[in-house]
Amino acid sequence: MAALLGVVEGLTEFLPISSTGHLILTAHALGLHDDATKSFEVVIQAGAILAVVFHYRALLWTRVSGLARRDPLSMRLAAALLAAFVPTAIAGLLLRKTIKRLLFGPTPVALALVVGGVVMIVGERLLARRQRTETDKLEDVTVLDGFLVGVAQCFSLWPGTSRAMCTLLAGRARGLDARTSAEFSFLLAIPVLGAATALDLYKDGRALLATGSMRLALLVGFATSFLVAWAAIGWFLAFLRKRGLEAFGWYRIAVGIAVFLLIRRS
Questions:
Q1: What is the number of structural domains in the chain?
Q2: Structural domain of residue 81, as residue ranges?
Q3: Running DSSP on this structure, what letter comes out for residue 166?
């Protein structure tokens, strides 16, 4: 079970199809509905965070060491990431309990998948028609760009919406090219997912670490999530350059409709 959830998390975290939504659907199919499972799903995101850190280790080292030297490019990127992080952090703290109580279920997830799929397809087609020069360097992302991406990211607090989808579309709408938008989204995942993981460990850490079996499950979920996410990041960047986002929109709609049909039959 832990390995399966780790695979789902790692495979879907950085794709615009909602890792939380897929984890909720997988847990529901396995008959896991307790609060510990919900927290487990959040905490194994740490594996995906480590995958981003490992994938972008050279860039991160350059920019972190640049901050120590007060390098302007490093300062600018850090400011943009901070501006993107703050709106989601505030919204997450205020709505965390409500979201877990009301939206961690198959029906809300299916609705978000379908609506998000339509938004993604329409958005991708509109962006394809746009004639303008796009920003192709992370260091050129402005604080305003970051803030607006962060505001859009708040919508991803609804499971099934997808943090990757919200940040990618918002970045593209702000004039970032596909790769830059994706890389900004990946880097933004470090503080966002890190904060969510830390908060759930603080709130529910005792329950999650209470027994040897739970600790082993977390370790397995973490390791599996890391390995799969590491592979998924490179694949997604290559796919995005060639095909764009529309295929993921159709996938979301198909999965959402399938879930609605299964709910009606049960």
A1: 1
A2: 2-265
A3: H
